[in-house]
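tool_call: predict_structure(chain=1)
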Amino acid sequence: MMTPPPIEDAAHVFLHVDLCAAVVRAAESHPVPLHVKLTDRTGGTEYEKTVEVTRADGTQAVVEFDVHRGVYLLRALAPQPSCAASDYLDFLPDLSRTVLETLASGPLAAPAPTTLLDGTAPVSFLYVKPTFAFFSGALACGASVSAPLGIGSRVEYDQGNYHVWLAEDGRASELPAAPATIAPSAAPAVPPVTLALKLRTATGLAHYVHVPIAYPLPWHGWPTHIQFNVSEEMLSSLATEKTDVLLCPKLWQTTVR
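tool_result:
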């Protein structure tokens, strides 16, 4: 079999798969096949491999590979016993990314709708304990922040980059729903939400930097991918800014891909 040519500007991936209890038990007596597949928006295969999980793997299997820049659907399936995981993932070129997924008992299911946000960032980015917070769309630049909305997000940090899943269905408890008598196509638009990057200061307070995107974004069966790069200069510029207000510096910009 010919070795495929190396991928130019590849993202290097370390996929850590936490195994379900049934796979761990089965692997005590015999190898268990774990099928890993990444596909793009058109269904084209970017990466596919079946690895054998053995007793030596313990409770986690690790798969290492390279991929092109982009957004992919990950499927990981151990058919016997039936445990699976699925997720949307985004990758940046020339960078490594460590991904942690967990197999759950049952058949393979589609991942929840999400918006993907990622970017490059210096090492000092981790020192300011970055998180993301959601506020009412009525929050104006320079205004004091209030209690954030309870909209879900998940963040992974790596050397030189970070990745965020912004929930597209976790806002239901916070935002008003359309009346039951109104058809979905005629339902009022979902109120906008302000997304802010929360960065801790040395005094325990926080800077809230507006992430300039129109959120929530419409779901068309595939995640919108937003890049929001953070530089050392951008972080340093916050030193003289007010805390606990919504900051809207022009230097901080997003790119929708």
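agent: The CA atoms of residues 28 and 55 lie 5 Å apart. Proceeding to next step.
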